[in-house]
Design goal:
The complex is a heterodimer of chains A (98) and B (393).
Chain A (H helix, E strand, L loop, with lengths): L1 H22 L3 H4 L4 E5 L3 E5 L3 E5 L3 E6 L2 E15 L3 E13 L1
Chain B lengths: L10 E7 L3 H10 L4 E7 L2 E6 L8 H7 L2 E8 L1 H8 L3 H17 L5 E5 L6 H10 L13 H11 L3 E9 L2 E8 L12 E3 L4 E10 L1 E2 L6 E2 L4 E4 L1 E7 L5 E7 L3 E17 L1 E19 L2 E6 L9 E12 L2 E21 L2 H19 L5 E12 L4 E13 L3
Parallel strand pairs in B: 5-7
Antiparallel strand pairs in B: 1-3, 1-4, 2-3, 6-7, 8-12, 9-11, 9-15, 10-12, 13-14, 15-21, 16-17, 16-19, 18-19, 20-21
Helix pairs in contact in B: 1-2
The chains are: A alpha+beta (98), B alpha+beta (393).
Chain lengths: 98, 393
């Protein structure tokens, strides 16, 4: 049951991606993907994220569609965050997706 | 970076303790509670929050097992709350605001624009007659009434506009353009130049001069008023004056004269290549010599003055740097033969005459007088031309 659902979702997703490709539309709108703007290793602006999973001085884990985004660094500070937007500052060492 | 929220509504600096920090933050965001500047101070998570959101945190804390503490209250609202205790300060602030408001209720200055012939005093007098002057209460000014009064009292104004901007009363006026008086069409033909009349041809009108008359510039030659004498049956004469447009030609001899003098020597100037420069600073009327000779070291020289101004945007420094350059000249004086000098003087005189001569004038005669002033070292030449032309205009 679950597998079938996932398959359907997968197909739907692929179809949306194709549409986005064909019309050259931004994928973050159609596929609900996060959109990140990273300035050097000091500032990150992420739109369309799902929530904070873990936050300490050195690590920030954010929920995004289909997984999570892990930012490691020093003195991580969340400058602002609203419903779907987050502004992070600090000295990043790595940004990874799982 | 300056945080404007410190002015309004202020903010609370709070610390959050507990393992469910991430969950607490997510829940709060979902409820529309805004945080900013979330960071760690040692092992303590610190964040900023609007004061009114603080109460909304309590149910979330219970749910997530976190605890919060207020570390600091910042912003104008908290200062104002403190001001409750300091009555004098609060009173002073209120008094200041009130005075600012109170004094902005009056007109402090009247600007008058657009007048050139009508004096400002005249406009001010009208304003004062209407009770408007500096210091008047703004509400008491009736702008439309003022505009109408200006237009009524001062005839030279075509339009007047009054407006209040802050503590200024702006009066704008447009003056009536005076129409130039209509020029009457000339009813007479007059002489354009002095001359001796040689021939008259009248097409319409009545001639006022005869052949052989000397006329002066502006003198009437042909009148546009024609006298008609009618003889009635009973032998009486009836005079009638009829206006016509005068037409005709008046030919006259006109003289043109020109006189030029030319020296009997020729001056040639040549630079020797010697030069000197003088630098000085000028502050308003004073001059401070820097270096170089203040007056020319040469007997014959040419001088060039340069002034440097220092301008930065709209500001001009009062100090000017003045540079005077001197160049030595060699002057060579060579005598010219009287015949050659005279020829040149004659040519110059003729050239000047040609500029005076109108087109289509027939030259009747040309007189040339030569003058030799050997003691003055000059020769002169007078050329006179007699032409025949139509001088009636």
């Amino acid at each position: 049951m679950q597998g079938k659902e996932q398959g359907e979702q997968g197909r739907k997703k692929r179809w949306r991606e194709n549409v986005a490709d064909f019309f050259e539309l931004p994928k973050e709108l159609l596929c609900n993907l996060p959109r990140a703007t990273i300035i050097g290793n000091v500032q990150l602006h992420l739109e369309n994220y799902g929530g904070i999973i873990e936050y300490t001085n050195e690590i920030l884990r954010l929920k995004i569609r289909g997984g999570e985004m892990v930012i490691k660094g020093e003195n991580l500070v969340i400058k602002h965050f609203f419903g779907e937007e987050i502004f992070v500052e600090g000295r990043f060492q790595s940004i990874a997706y799982f | 970076m300056f945080d404007w929220r410190i002015l309004w509504p202020g903010y609370l600096l709070i610390s959050v303790k507990g393992s469910g920090l991430a969950r607490f933050l997510n829940l709060a965001t979902r409820q529309g509670i805004n945080f900013w500047d979330l960071g760690y101070e040692g092992s303590l998570a610190v964040l900023k929050i609007r004061p009114r959101d603080f109460k909304r945190l309590r149910p979330l804390l219970r749910k997530t097992g976190c605890s919060v503490r207020i570390l600091q209250k910042k912003g104008a609202p908290f200062l104002l709350l403190q001001g409750k205790r300091r009555k004098g300060l609060a009173l002073g602030m209120a008094f200041f605001c009130f005075m600012l408001y109170f004094f902005s209720l009056f007109i402090w200055h009247i600007n008058i624009e657009g007048n050139t012939d009508v004096s400002k005093e005249e406009i001010r007098a009208v304003l004062e007659n209407n009770g408007v002057k500096e210091g008047i209460f703004k509400k008491r000014i009736d702008l439309t009434e003022l505009e109408r009064a200006l237009l009524l009292k001062i005839a030279d104004l075509k339009w007047a506009g009054a407006g209040i901007k802050g503590v200024f009363l702006n009066i704008q006026v447009v003056e009536r353009l005076r129409e130039p008086p209509l020029e009457e069409e000339p009813r007479n033909l007059v002489a354009a130049k002095d001359g001796l009349v040689t021939d008259i041809l009248v097409l319409s009108g009545e001639p006022l001069v005869e052949i052989g008359d000397t006329v002066q510039k502006g003198q009437k030659l042909i009148s546009g008023q024609v006298k008609i004498i009618e003889e009635l049956e009973d032998g009486e004469q009836l005079e009638e004056i009829m206006e016509v447009k005068p037409k005709g030609m008046v030919q006259a001899l006109v003289w043109y004269e020109s006189y030029t003098e030319v020296p009997l020597y020729q001056v040639r100037k040549k630079r020797t290549g010697n030069a000197a420069r003088f630098f000085s600073l000028e502050v308003e009327d004073r001059r401070y010599n820097l270096w170089g000779p203040a007056s020319s070291p040469y007997r014959n020289y040419e001088m060039e003055k340069t002034k440097h101004f220092y301008v930065w945007r709209d500001l001009r420094l009062p100090v000017e740097l003045s540079i005077i350059g001197y160049r030595e000249l060699e002057v060579d004086i060579q005598p010219v033969s009287p015949q050659a000098a005279l020829q040149e003087a004659k040519n110059l005189a003729l050239e000047e005459l040609n500029l005076q001569l109108p087109k289509g004038a027939t030259i009747k005669e040309r007189y040339v007088n030569e003058f030799y002033f050997f003691e003055l070292g000059r020769v002169g030449c007078r050329v006179m031309i007699e032409t025949l032309e139509d001088i009636a205009v």
